[in-house]
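G., the chain you wanted modeled:
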Amino acid sequence: MTKKLFGTDGIRGTANCGNMTTEMALKVGMAAALHFTAGDHRHRVVVGKDTRLSGYMLEPALTAGFVSMGMDVILVGPMPTPAIAMLTRSLRADLGVMISASHNPYEDNGIKLFGPDGYKLSDAVEREIEAHVANGLVEKLAPPPRLGRAKRLDDAKGRYTEYVKQTFPKRLSLEDLKIVVDCANGAAYKVAPEVLWELGADVVPVGVEPDGFNINRQCGSTDTDYLCSQVVAHQADIGLALDGDADRVLVCDEKGELIDGDQIMALIARHWSDTGMLKGGGVVATVMSNLGFEKYLTDIGLQTIRTQVGDRYVVEHMRANGYNLGGEQSGHVILSDYSTTGDGLIAALQVLAAILDEGDIASRVCRMFDPYPQLLKNVCINGGDPLSEPAVRRVIDDGEQRLSGNGRLLIRKSGTEPLIRVMAEGEDEALVTTVVGDIADAVEKAAGGH
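Predicted structure as tokens:
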């Protein structure tokens, strides 16, 4: 059965319409509670959110859904997504919920669900929750004596801060580093500067003034120009850019030049391999990771295993095959020794640990390989399936033939936005640019007919 609500990272959409209304949030809360309620004990769910205005609408709707099914709700307010995963396990909750659309603009919001083990739900469980939503829930409501309660957890920030700090090597200190951290006016606007400062850094926080509308707006990991300029202006040693829910991070070196998720994973892989921490003999990445990344790992004797796009699929492969490092070019880095999901802060601390151990500047430590020329274009669509159009298929086939042997082409529908993503990479940058442009034009033309 094809999923209708859930995409590659939970449920996501424009706030107050479609699947992102209070009515749907109520039903999702009820359906998730029904799935995760078993036995006679008091069941509990941890609910966090980012800083979007619509969080004030979705949080009480979800809470009402959980309470109506007999589940107690622990509200933690604005917190990073990985904090919800951690707290779900720490508090022995049956379920964790993060209200966030991650890197999307403020108009969007989403619902991410974590099981009692702190991991994102499988496709099978998501389909069961969708079935509950579709088949009606009223007859499953808890009787009055079994209704749940809702309360706030005042020390959630402190619990997560201390947990993150414990992942940084105790033999090291950040006291000699000046760090600019861009919190994207999002969920980590309090915890990220606090963690870095408590570990000794001279911290320059930016993107820490959320107003409900400015999450990810000209800041954070999706728009790093301001971070890079601030690193140079403050003569900082490094810059860290989180996204709206802080499950991803990108890095900026002291020159103001960006370092992407592939470089971050390569750095951690080599550092962990040298110190005996790396498990599985390689890194789990996605089809989006650069060919230069794969070549670098091969050169140092490590494997690259690729999955479909989505950190959930990376984690599933890591768990099934014994890897402890994986992630995405976008900055989702999963360090399974410490976290069940991508954690921008924990990944950043591993980068900082590697820099300190190398005893050199970020621009020399963090650039592990020369990436192959790669170009990604996003084409907006309004329904329909332009990729099935014969004219589009012809252009795609032609592009694949032209890149054959010295590059590759990847075209897919986004699982979180109404976009077709067209990506190509290869040794010939001009050819890559031409192929992507031709395909994007064909997709846009076909999409305009729907």
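The CA atoms of residues 280 and 322 lie 6 Å apart.

Shout if anything looks off.
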